[in-house]
Amino acid sequence: MKCYNVLTEKNEECNELVVSKERGVEFLVSIPHSGILIPENLKKNIVLDSLRKEGDLYTDEIFTLSKGIVIKSKLMPLVLNVSRHKTGLKGDVPKHLLKDPIHTSRLGGQKLPLIEYTSVEKEELLVYYDQYHSKIKESVIKIKETNGFVVVLDGHSLLSVGLENTPDKGKERADFIVGTLDDTSAHPKIIETFYESLKRNAAEYDLTVVKNKPYKGGFITSNYANPAEKVNVIQLEIKRSIYLNEKTFEKYPKKIEMLNLILEKVMSETIKVAKQVYD
Question: Which of 82, 170, 276, 278 shows its CA 20 to 30 Å from the CA of 36?
């Protein structure tokens, strides 16, 4: 199978589009939007210019830690957004969660796909959606069986300034945005530890941290969080300008290393307290 790589702007072999790495069973990290691949047969459905600003570039490098299980999609989220309900949510939910995984809009508002997918193309894409969520469910079960509890970190990035269609239009964003569904997505002590540890470690680099503004947590957070069953989920958004040039998309390797180190420390402290909570 061939895919178009958004970074290299060339086609390449792409046989495994949902991947997981296990370096332990301490916690689970979900990285749904770092993908940069578009199946070659679906290129016709997307205008290929300026695509690099549309995904969470390099978040797989930032959020892949030395411990835990990591799950990521290699598909560009404009093609398949695994952080959506399979048929789209209804009711009083954020507007972007009303969309299903394969119908979306670009940052400028252009609706995708340009040409509606065929039934076969939809089925093929949703196979990868099912793979992603099956891996999450399997990992949650495995971690809970081992530890008696689960902590999931859902990793994202965002532009440094809110766009027209965002809740914080035109405003400069904090460096880290912790999403906890108004402190209902995890045990209070786990939320407190994660948040305070992140603030303390980020402050060493003069980085700022806020909680639930402008984003409280997306589909993965709301779908899998179940503190009553000891399944704790926290979403984390990181401002892209920290680790890449938002115009050229050149990454800053030392900054990525710094962010990775911060998350290593934060997750270590969080899991230590989680063990105490559920002991």
Answer: 170
Residue with the two structure tokens 């930032």: 62
pTM above 0.85, yes or no: yes
Long-range contacts of 121-124 (CB under 8 A, 24+ apart): 121/41, 121/42, 124/39
Beta-strand (E) ranges in 104-241?
A: 104-105, 111-112, 150-158, 176-179, 209-211, 231-239
Alpha-carbon span 169 to 189, nearest angstrom:
32
Residue 264: both structure tokens together: 């290593």
Measured in whole angstroms, how far is the alpha carbon of residue 74 from the centre of its chain?
A: 12
Degrees (nearest 5) of the Cα angle 73, 98, 129? 25
- Tell me what pLDDT residue 130 has: 98
Do 101 and 133 meet the contact criterion of CB atoms below 8 Å apart? Answer: no
pLDDT tens per residue across span 41-81? 999 999 888 888 889 999 999 999 999 999 999 999 999 99
- Residue 255: CB atoms within 10 A of its CB come to 16
pLDDT in tens, 117-154: 999 999 999 999 999 999 999 999 999 999 999 999 99
- Which residues make Cβ contacts (< 8 Å) with residue 28, sequence separation at least 6? 68, 69, 70, 71, 136, 139, 140, 143, 150, 151, 152, 153
Strand ordering across the sheet containing 150-158: 18-22, 69-73, 28-31, 150-158, 231-239, 176-179, 209-211
Biggest CA-to-CA distance, the chain: 54
* Secondary structure of residue 195 in the 3-state scheme: helix
The SS3 of residue 156 is strand
| Measured distance CA(173)–CA(208) in Å, rounded | 9
Rounded Cα–Cα distance for residues 100 and 111 (Å): 13
